[in-house]
Design a protein that fits this description.
four-stranded antiparallel beta sheet, single chain, alpha+beta
Amino acid sequence: MRKVVLLFLLVFLVGCGNETLTIRSTLEGDSYLRNNIAALSQEQFSSLLSGDAVIENNTYIKLKETLEQHTNTRYLLAENRIYRYSDKNELLYVADWTEEDNVHKLDSILFP
């Protein structure tokens, strides 16, 4: 019985390994990016983008580098726009999110 439970858990965990999160809010999306950017591939990152988003590969790389350099940050949330600041009050980026079919998607990201 123990082996069956262990096997079931292993299959379940392996089966969920490549799925990205279904994002329900702007803050949840931003938090997901910050916590998982190191492990996200370009393809997985692209799955978080809205249909209208024009975000190039260099933006993905810049976001990844910015978040790796600034582990302690704070934010200001205004509707579906999030302003991310360093712990020294430096603006790191501004991200706009949009809702598509009850899922929040990254629409644009700007760096100062």
